[in-house]
Fold this protein.
Amino acid sequence: MTDLADLTILEAGAGLRAGDFTARDLFDAVQRRAAVTEAHLHAYLTIDHDGARAAADAADAAFAAGTDLGPLQGIPLALKDNMVTEGLDTTASSKILAGWKPPYDGTVVARLRAGGAVITGKTNLDEFAMGSSTENSAFGTTRNPWNTDRVPGGSSGGSAAAVAVGSAFGAFGSDTGGSIRQPAALTGVVGMKPTYGLVSRYGLIAFASSLDQIGPFARTVADAVVLLESVAGWDRMDATSIDGPVPDLGGSLEAGVEGLRIGVVNELMGDGIDPEVRSATTSMIDSLESAGAKVTEISLPSSEFALSAYYLIAPAECSANLARFDGVRYGHRSSVEGTTEDMMSHSRAEGFGPEVIRRILLGTYALSAGYYDAFYGQAQKVRTLVRNDFAEAYERVDVLVSPTSPTTAFPVGSRAADPIAMYYSDVCTIPSNLSGDPSISVPVGLDAAGLPIGFQVMAPSLGEERLFQVAAEVERLADFTARATLATSEVPRT
């Protein structure tokens, strides 16, 4: 018998409506899975046992009454712990917010609850979403369920690991420079960053406001569509929210790629890309061409400078956004005696971890008088060039493709002392954040060490339908059925 925790969202939804099992059964299944795997993974910071059971029971009662709230009714989902949840700890994996219980739900959370979803809990992340490995959490490292000596990627590593191991049917993370797609690639799940503004950021603890975007993790492309459809759309509480209709997201999932123009980004296939990753990417490109796609090479010259530009723009915005955490209104307050300024200084020094402090200092320097034009101003010019390169590329092709991550999952601690090596983990994903366009990672195979390889598809702004169309074909061609080692070997089967 198949463990309920191994079902997809669509399979679970069909079973609920057929009366094969209940929402409480689904939550009990993922809770059992978490009880075994969490000791190895630390994917969650908080599991909301009572709240999730109540939500599951409410979903079952609604079904019994003939009320159908949508495809996520009764489905257990996890949330990255930088999304505010009323009455439930929201820490952004930082000591400065330890124990903070927000007085409201963010828009994404509210929409999920309105749709009957069961929020299982809050997942671990790199502190304030600053990292590529989920090692920068104040509350401990998350491990990769394929090999617990490896990282799950970051910053949304907890959400990715939970979906990969089956302690959630789906999850949401945030993506500032690749923080959904890179961990999805490293853990063998689907991870998607929508068009900037398609999903409300209200209630997302800000890192870099012009780059941050909430998006889904799922086991399949079709599940990712369902998750995104449930939260997308204009929100008056978010000034950057797109005021317009949500594009048709899943209407072309079965259309294939016959006649579609696919561009291979030259700059993301060369030096620095692991040979096994490059080989798997090339093999999938060949398969897409055999399936009828018209494949051409595309150059994005500015992508060479995208990484450098990002690590000026994002820290600059973070230095401003994190100024609010000062120990005055909420969060950690130092017990050191002295002036108000002393209290604020000590609170921040005690509350922030080293990576956050590094980025605040870098961003403050980039914005300082005398250096603004040389650093932040130049970085914004590069961002414009990136956008222009993408716009020109999309005049020639329908989508762009590349590896998601230059390597598979690397050992825990191996890059901790080398920030540059760590930052390079996002070299393939950052360009889409700078352009604001949607992109997705789909697993396409395993390397010789048995670790997943992700394939990235990118599309123009609001081109989610075409993005999912190609991603679904990649999924069919890859036929990736492998499961994370921890999910298959550590969990007893019934």
About this structure: The mean pLDDT is 96.
